[in-house]
């Protein structure tokens, strides 16, 4: 991994070699935190990639001035580096896979914010055993997963080819991206007041209505003991997801059972989460599919039964809060057929694969 990242960074930075020299002698460069393609989250692997690239720039590239990714620096129109990582079918392949794999593909792009143009887009492949896909703290603790436009715009930019324009949605949301990056850093340093202020700043920027901001507002308020504000933030996440016809929540169950984990640090807010979901569904006068998922370990038969049992557990709890949902909801088990991470580690690394999804439906024959 380390060797591949160095080669990748060298090829990425080479994209700036034909640019005219900057007036100050050094060219400002920022890094928009790299993400995992499948989940859209930062992981230990993407964080290590960023650290390696930063070290390389400082040690070998004096023509670049590495600067923090924040709103103030963006006003300088610096170069910007971003990228991603994903499992693929084999070395040299561009075919992504959601299941266990022996190979990861890593890639990066270098963009010029002066012109809005992509300068380079190299790719490398690495052995899976050298990659740590564990989600970082913020990603792991975020309760809701949403495949939103901010993540899609980032990945579209990562897919751009040299000489082509950067994605306009990504560029429009850059100030929000920068504020979120600072907020996540503050949150993981337990500077919750600072994190909350930055999440609020991001929320008010173009592109600020996104999953990371909504998760961050919830997490920062919860960490500060502001339970009512946290509940309001979770309510906003529910509305955001239902409006997009897909709300995936990380409700963690005891292994092999349909019972929530007994650790109150994890499951204490679950009743509030489910109450908010029930309230929003009833207020919207809709019906609901509750879809359980499992990790890719275990037999198909077992996973199908387990995912259905977990969806049924959630359905019962929703109906206990809002009895009208008994006749307006349906529990479905998808087993392990739709993994997002696909590692089969059965721990926090693949918690998304054991999610419960809430999909609003028109009330036509749903029982």
From TrEMBL:
Q: Which domain of life is it from?
A: Bacteria
Q: SUPFAM superfamilies from the entry?
A: OmpA-like, TPR-like
The portions of this protein that span the membrane are none
Q: Which InterPro entries match?
A: OmpA-like, OmpA-like_sf, TPR-like_helical_dom_sf
Q: Which UniProt keywords apply?
A: Membrane
Q: Does the keyword ATP-binding apply?
A: no
Locate the OmpA-like domain: which residues?
240-364
- The protein's name is OmpA family protein
Q: Which organism is it from?
A: Belnapia arida
Q: What is the lineage of its organism?
A: Bacteria, Pseudomonadati, Pseudomonadota, Alphaproteobacteria, Acetobacterales
């Amino acid at each position: 991994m380390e060797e591949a990242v160095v080669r990748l960074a060298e090829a990425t930075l080479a994209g700036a070699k034909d640019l005219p020299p900057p007036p100050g002698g050094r060219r400002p460069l920022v890094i928009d935190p790299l993400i995992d393609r499948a989940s859209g989250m930062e992981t230990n692997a993407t964080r290590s990639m960023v650290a390696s690239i930063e070290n390389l720039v400082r040690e070998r590239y004096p023509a670049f001035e590495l600067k923090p990714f924040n709103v103030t620096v963006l006003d300088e129109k610096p170069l910007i580096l971003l990228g991603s990582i994903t499992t693929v079918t084999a070395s040299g392949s561009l075919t992504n896979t959601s299941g266990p794999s022996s190979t990861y593909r890593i890639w990066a792009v270098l963009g010029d914010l002066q012109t809005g143009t992509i300068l380079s887009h190299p790719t490398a492949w690495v052995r899976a055993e050298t990659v740590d896909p564990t989600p970082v703290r913020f990603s792991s603790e975020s309760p809701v997963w949403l495949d939103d436009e901010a993540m899609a715009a980032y990945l579209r930019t990562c897919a751009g080819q040299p000489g082509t324009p950067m994605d306009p949605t990504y560029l429009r949301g850059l100030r929000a991206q920068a504020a979120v990056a600072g907020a996540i850093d503050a949150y993981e340093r337990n500077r919750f007041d600072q994190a909350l202020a930055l999440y609020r700043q991001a929320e008010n920027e173009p592109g600020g209505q996104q999953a990371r901001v909504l998760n961050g507002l919830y997490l920062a308020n919860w960490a500060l003991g502001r339970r009512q504000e946290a509940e309001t933030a979770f309510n906003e996440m529910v509305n955001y997801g239902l409006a997009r016809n897909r709300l995936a929540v990380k409700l963690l169950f005891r292994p092999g059972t349909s019972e929530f984990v007994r650790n109150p640090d994890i499951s204490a807010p679950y009743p509030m989460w489910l109450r908010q979901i029930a309230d929003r569904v009833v207020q919207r006068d809709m019906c609901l599919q509750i879809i359980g998922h499992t990790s890719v370990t275990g037999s198909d038969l077992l996973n199908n039964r387990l995912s259905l049992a977990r969806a049924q557990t959630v359905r019962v709890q929703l109906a206990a809060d809002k009895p009208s949902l008994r006749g307006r909801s349906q529990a479905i088990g998808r087993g392990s057929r739709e993994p997002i991470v696909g590692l089969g580690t059965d721990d926090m690394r693949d918690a998304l694969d054991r999610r419960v999804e809430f999909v609003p439906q028109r009330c036509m024959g749903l029982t």
